[in-house]
Amino acid sequence: METGDSVASSSVDWSALARRILGGHVLTRDEGLSVLGASDSELLPLLDAAWQVRHRYFGRKVHLYYLKNAKSGLCPEDCGYCSQNVNSTAEIPKYSLLSEPAILEGARQAAASQARTYCIVTSGRGPTDREVDRVAGIVRKIKDQYGLHICCCLGLLSSEQAQTLADAGVDRINHNLNTSRGYYEQICSTHTFDDRLETLRVVRNAGMELCCGVIAGMGETHQDLVELALELRGIKVESIPVNFLNSIEGTQLQEVRVLDPRFCLKVLCLFRLANPSTELRVAGGREVNLRSMQAMALYPANSLFVSDYLTTRGQPAEEDFRMIEDLGFEIVTGDHESYRLFEARRNQQAEAADEAVPAGLNCSS
Ligand code: SF4
Question: Which residues line ligand 1 (CB under 6 A)?
């Protein structure tokens, strides 16, 4: 992975580029390459340009996502970055689809963590129809009880499966392209870039939003990252998670080195400038790759995961809340409000039930 020259500076007027983008200009391939190749001394002007664009569409707001690994390991695919892949020897939990109470408990934790969106993720090439029906039934209950936005990441989907999920109230499907078309076969041989595009197509046809992102740091070139940033613009996805490889021992990419945090910020600026009004999430690998620069990521990005990732730990939610508060940013409560209403309703019901019990008998011990 190339990184920017730390001394030289380019001739790009980043602020002028931001103004042009806000006026409707579409980031070009060359401009994208300039972003990734910017010198470290240009980092603050570049972040300011990304901030101007982010601020136009999202102000100082931050969306939080909470992720539940609802089925772990046991995957027949060979995505080289993934600890759950068929060739991985990483020591990770392996289990089939969690029970309904366990997934509902995740929703409760998501709401309690001020998350706006609850992400239900399962390992595997794609779900069985039975798994889709189970997830759909659980989503109906989550919507009813917590009012959370629901994003499902279940692998490759058929049209019928996508429609079942849409009918149950799933708002969004996550299905990452991860890297450019040209580099895709370097990271996976069991399915193709076009297979993934096809799932994005059926999700869109079923009327759900698209969450589709990248994993930077898998040995790709700047050109690959720029191509994907522009591809996602073309697809008009609603949300882009920007992951930075957290190389896990036992995977094919275990030797790949950690990225430098300044380059990670340039990657976030690239995806923001290429996709001005799209939700941009600083996602997996944040803590490992951005380290002390994590807070800066929220100038181009407007969203992050709280708590843990699929098979790796995130930092405690309290540290994320503190970071957001220290930045002077504001967590979007959104549907969290419906959880507060739900809690209030439940407390009222509990009080009413207590009152209905004859005095002297309301002891559970
Ligand atoms: S990314 Fe998904 S499909 Fe690929 S190996 Fe991991 S769990 Fe399987």
Answer: 75, 77, 79, 82, 84-85, 123-125, 155
The CA 75 to ligand 1 mean position distance, Å, reads: 6
In a domain, 60, yes or no: yes
Q: What is the pLDDT of residues 46-65, one digit of tens each?
A: 999 999 999 999 999 999 99
Question: Would the pLDDT of 348 be above 80?
Answer: no
Residue 278's domain comprises 52-341
Q: Is residue 348 part of a domain?
A: no
State the DSSP code for 42.
G
26 domain-assigned: no
Look at the chain and report how many structural domains it folds into. Answer: 1
Q: Which of 54, 116, 119, 272 is catalytic?
A: 119
DSSP secondary structure code for residue 192 in this structure:
-
Query: Is the distance from CB of 214 to CB of 244 less than 8 angstroms?
Result: no
Q: Is 286 a catalytic residue?
A: no
Give the other-Cβ count within 10 Å of 118's Cβ.
27
Looking at residue 350, its pLDDT comes to: 67
Q: Tell me whether residue 314 is in a domain.
A: yes
